[in-house]
Amino acid sequence: MNLKPCRKRLGKALSHHTNKSNNTYDQDIEIRNLSSNRFDNTATANKQLLLKMAGNNKKRPSSKSEDPAEKKLGSALSCYTCKSNGAYDQEFDIEIRNLRPDWFKNRSHNDKQ
Question: What is the pTM of this model?
Answer without folding.
Answer: 0.63
